[in-house]
Amino acid sequence: MTIARISELDRRTTQSGRANNGLWLLEFEREQALRPDPLTGWNGSGDTNTQVRITFKTKDEAIAFCEKRGLQYHLIPAAPLKMKLQAYADNFR
């Protein structure tokens, strides 16, 4: 059975704006193990669900999507934001 992972999108380190803040991402967990290709040596599998990434505006929309399609899901909340405020001069102490 396909298991979905619902997580809150974190803001990237290089992102200063709030454009995609608060979005929720749905990804599918891998069902088949990766195996090396005998010709190239690259890892791969026949499981294409891991390539699917769907974003939702709210957590409830993502949960409703899974329940409507009969998917099991795991909720992963975003890590709390820790801000360290310091002066620029503190870098040279």
Automatic annotation (TrEMBL):
Location in the cell: Membrane
Spell out the Gene3D superfamilies in the cross-references.
atu1810 like domain
Keywords for the protein's UniProt record, in alphabetical order: Electron transport, Membrane, Respiratory chain, Transit peptide, Transport
Extract the Pfam families matched here.
NDUS4 (PF04800)
Location, primary (coarse class): membrane
- What domain of life? Bacteria
Alphabetized PANTHER family for the sequence: NADH DEHYDROGENASE [UBIQUINONE] IRON-SULFUR PROTEIN 4, MITOCHONDRIAL, NADH-UBIQUINONE OXIDOREDUCTASE
Give the protein's recorded name: ETC complex I subunit
Q: Which organism is it from?
A: Sphingomonas sediminicola
Which lineage do the record's taxonomy fields give for this organism?
A: Bacteria, Pseudomonadati, Pseudomonadota, Alphaproteobacteria, Sphingomonadales
